[in-house]
Amino acid sequence: MPWIVGIDEAGYGPNLGPFVMTSVACRVPEDAGTDLWRLLRPAVRRPTEPADDRFLVEDSKVVYATARGLFELERGVLATASPCRPGAALPLAEYLDWVSPGTQEELRGERWYTGATALPLGGTEAFGACAERFAEACEQSGLTLGLVRSVVVCPARFNGLLDRWDSKGVVLAVAMAELLGHNHATAAGAEPVRFFIDKHGGRNAYAAMVQHAYPDGLVLAREEGRDRSVYDVIGLERPVELTFEPRADGNHFCVALASMVSKYLREVLMLEFNQFWGTHVPGLKPTAGYPGDAVRFFEAIRPVCGRLGIPEAAVWRRK
Fold first, then answer.
1. Which residues share a beta bridge with 198?
2. How large is the angle between the packed helices 71-80 and 253-280, nearest 10 degrees?
3. Structure confidence by residue, pLDDT tens digits, 85-131
4. What is the 3-state secondary structure (H, E, C) of the chain?
5. pLDDT at position 59 over 80
6. How buried is 309 (Cβ within 10 angstroms: 0-12 exposed, 13-18 middle, 19+ buried)?
7. What is the per-residue pLDDT for 89?
8. Which of 51, 90, 189, 222 holds its CA 20 to 30 A away from the CA of 101?
């Protein structure tokens, strides 16, 4: 049975807060194709379908908007890609231990991080029925949700990579290589793996980036263009294929779910970020960290950074 893995990110554009990239892997029946929405239709829906008791899986920009709140995004993530169980709250730190082992050390270097936020934010009843429906749909279709893994890059490391390589794109490359490595290590036996990855900016060439992630294989470019870039990795114990394409989060279920996990994790982390700074600057309006509003927020907290001995490079991402 082949594996399909989707990779997408959240928080690449902001000047404040962490960058998050996530991979979601599904093991699918041989003849299933790549349209996993079709396989899982009893549990999930797309925004073009009428609203019902199924939950939405789509590009996070479609599922989440500030005005609508986190409910729909949280419900979809916790019903599929989490260790949360209905009826029991889970601290953010424990969710991170599950989705991003090793992240805690970097996050503990952030003065704003506590990991104490209780998930789900919207109450434990919100996702229970959806989780049961998703599990049933997976069982009936023969699909298995595999590894869900996130990489979190905080501003200090983000700026350090910029200093070393003078390129913002290297942040994407480092996170992606880490996720490819995790999936290579966990995919079973010789089963083929197909990666679908949202294109990074306007670039078409990814061979060098992929080769860095597979030092024991040889990366061959099958196609490189505006519509897609496709690579095979040969010399490994299993066939590996990677497709980079624009709007992959709207074309592939696993990419959409990876987009949702990344966005949800960043939003919960930004909740702790805003709570911390709000205690030090009374009346401070929260920020999503994006250019424009980030300047307003940073100017308000800059004096506090000085008093607390927090370097500006540990808060403000230069690009």
1. 245
2. 120
3. 887 889 999 999 999 998 999 999 999 999 999 999 986 666 888 99
4. CCEEEEEEEECCCCCECCEEEEEEEEECCCCCCCCHHHHCCCCEECCCCCCCCCEECCCHHHHCECCCECHHHHHHHHHHCCCCECCECEEHHHHHHHHCCCHHHHHHCCCCCCCCCEECCCCCCCCHHHHHHHHHHHHHHCCEEEEEEEEEECHHHHHHHHHHHCCCHHHHHHHHHHHHHHHHHHCCCCCCEEEEEECCCCCCCCHHHHHHHCCCCEEEEEEECCCCEEEEEECCCCCEEEEEECCHHHHCHHHHHHHHHHHHHHHHHHHHHHHHHHHHCCCCCCCCCCCCHHHHHHHHHHHHHHHHCCCHHHCECCC
5. yes
6. exposed
7. 86
8. 189
Q: Which two tokens stand for residue 131?
A: 């989780």
Q: Picking from 33-37, 44-48, 137-141, which range would have the lowest pLDDT averaged per residue? A: 33-37
Q: What are 2's two structure tokens?
A: 């082949």
